[in-house]
Amino acid sequence: MPIVKYPRATEPLWHEWDGKAQKCGLRHTVYAVNGDRYTGEWLDNLKHGKGTQVWKRTGAIYSGDWKFGKRDGYGSYSIPDPVTKEYKKVYTGWWKNDQKCGYGATFYPGGERYEGEWSGGLRSGWGRMYYRDGSIYEGQWLVDRPGGQGMLRLPNENRYEGGWKDGKKHGPGKFFYLDKGQLFEGIWAADIPKCGILIDFGRDEAPAPTQYPIPKV
């Protein structure tokens, strides 16, 4: 009985090429049209898992977690110094939907830094900010500014404890003039004390106490 051979059905070559082009799992460096490059894990042609992205225009680097093409999870973001070209860490912490979200630390130019909570890429929740002049704010943040209850300690150890709004002292608060041995307690509005009382506080330990003590009522 003669054997009849039927030709095997062949798929178009573009099917094979397209299959190879689908990115899923761990891949070597993949270059974008604009020169950006990514090395890491993929899922359904999207960055997903652990990976490192380098932006060509700025030279910035993100290394950490990705979810469906966006930074999501824990990771660090660094940029090169314009003079030395050495990389400086800008942010280390948690991300969600490509924005800072959760607990993280940001390092600003001039040595300032923030450690605390973020939401939608803005400082929000509890956090501590170290300013260039040596001041430290610790407390609540709202929409990238101190808002709620917090304490500001100045370089000379004087401090304010109380309410904040839009980054300014607002509401009931106490200002400790530890260098003079006095305490002002009252109500603030937009950084200005509106009413309150001034009493002696820690005059014996004050380095430069006021010349005359405040008489008790």
UniProtKB/TrEMBL annotation:
<dbReference type="InterPro" id="IPR003409">
    <property type="entry name" value="MORN"/>
</dbReference>
<dbReference type="InterPro" id="IPR052472">
    <property type="entry name" value="MORN3"/>
</dbReference>
<dbReference type="GO" id="GO:0001669">
    <property type="term" value="C:acrosomal vesicle"/>
</dbReference>
<comment type="function">
    <text>Assembles a suppression complex (suppresome) by tethering SIRT1 and MDM2 to regulate composite modifications of p53/TP53. Confers both deacetylation-mediated functional inactivation, by SIRT1, and ubiquitination-dependent degradation, by MDM2, of p53/TP53, promoting a proliferative and cell survival behaviors. May play a role in the regulation of spermatogenesis.</text>
</comment>
<dbReference type="Pfam" id="PF02493">
    <property type="entry name" value="MORN"/>
</dbReference>
<protein>
    <recommendedName>
        <fullName>MORN repeat-containing protein 3</fullName>
    </recommendedName>
</protein>
<keyword id="KW-0968">Cytoplasmic vesicle</keyword>
<keyword id="KW-0677">Repeat</keyword>
